[in-house]
């Protein structure tokens, strides 16, 4: 994953997370193996070709529509925050949160079955769900901290503390 | 030397009880002494995830199903991946489990040993040897405790019990009692009704707490004395019996039920009475009677388990756990109160010295010092100690431990150590300074910041 930061002006900052993950991953190899298995089991018949090509098509469509390649947070002073997700197929979805609706920007920890993940989120007034920034790529804490301090320094006019090291034990 | 300690138990806030408050207060005092403490418990309702309490005490609510009275079912290895992640990211060196009922605590101890961490276990209750559930429980306890660095018990009776149940060497078992915050249980004689003698009972209403005895005793006392009232707090399966007793003997004006009481309301309930009655049938260390004595009540209790060790003789009257003896003891207590033979209001000052969390934390720290010196036994040594557990179970336990070890190796491969990010440390000193500044700022008002 690569992380970039653009300061477009004094009052605007953009943080971009780009996924370095390989376009073809282990699931694709698994699919190929399944397809080969199918060919072996069914022989070179028409139905077999139909099934195999359908499977591959579905997989490609799924990747184009749902595989995330880039996530962005754009912070503008006194205006608000825009969170954007770009998918492999070029589709992108974004959400804008007005400055007056932003209650807080936080970093929190979440528990999954295997991991403890750190995430950055925006608490929006009047909503019971937070907006999670970099929701799909989930960068590491040191990256999150830069975006966190930068966003806070612009939205809440706080001092940028990102150069203060954290204590680990 | 500061340690990174991880407390594990199924029982923690928002569930209320003795183990829960013990965990909280002990952790707080250890943090104040410069250690880093985290607590792992299971999720309570919607309360999953990571939470921070006072002074940066981090609580991990791991999502798990709850089967019976806030205890989670044994998952064997299901808990290991997440436990390993937490332990590695927090750089834990000591795992401290609490309460034998908690399967989570047993699992954590086994996994911690596999990972080569130091382990410690605190037992909060007593068990029998004869009924089926105790036999299963004792086997389980023997399993986890056959390879543990140290065991802490809350009273000498409890130590004796644990040593017998788990076949431990007594040298590896130490006694550290519970404590109370005496300043939170200041007596207040003005709250008492001067015309009648009030007897307070606060406990979970279960069989173990001797509610059947209470059902028998209350009508007899009410018949004997016209100026005695009962205030009964707590909830549980036996509550229905108590209410039936009140209906049957028409004692609606004499017996008051308060239902379940929140931790901060306990003191206000206690100070309404002159006598505190405890009818437990088994008890490792009854913190309830210490709180009652602190709040200025004369205590009448059944003489079971660790109860006789807890209070000085002049604060407590003992009875055998049977109806007649309990009535007799209550007779004596009511007489003493009416003749003003004792001054329960002075108990608080005496107990303040005897039970303090600072002392408990110091002693626990000594245990940690001792176990961090011990040598890690190799896997074969561990297997040998598990093998000695019994003819059949010994082999079964060995298989389980071997599988646990293999699972750990697999986890190390699939989720390498270096990929787990360390968690940043809570800046306790900075937090303390901020609190002090805030305290100074509202010096005129009550200093409610960080009052715990």
Would you kindly provide a written description of the structure presented here, covering whatever features stand out?
The complex is a heterodimer of chains A (169) and B (452). With 169 residues, chain A is of the alpha+beta class. Chain A has 2 domains: 110 residues, PH-domain like (Roll), CATH 2.30.29; 41 residues. Chain A contains 3 helices and 8 strands. In chain A, the strands form 2 sheets. Chain A has a 5-stranded antiparallel β-sheet with strand order 1-2-3-4-5. In chain A, helix 1 packs antiparallel against helix 2. Chain A is elongated and about 70 Å long. The two termini of chain A are 26 Å apart. Chain B has 452 residues and is α/β, with parallel strands linked by helices. Chain B has 2 domains: 239 residues, Glycogen Phosphorylase B (Rossmann fold); 173 residues, 3-Layer(aba) Sandwich (Rossmann fold), CATH 3.40.50.2000. Chain B contains 16 helices and 14 strands. In chain B, strands 3-4-2-1-5-6-7-8 form an 8-stranded mixed β-sheet, with helices on both faces. Chain B has a 6-stranded parallel β-sheet with strand order 11-10-9-12-13-14, sandwiched between helices. In chain B, helix 6 packs across helix 11. Chain B starts with a strand and ends in an 11-residue tail after the last helix. Classes of the chains: A alpha+beta (169), B alpha/beta (452). At the A-B interface, strand 6 of A face strand 4 and helix 2 of B.
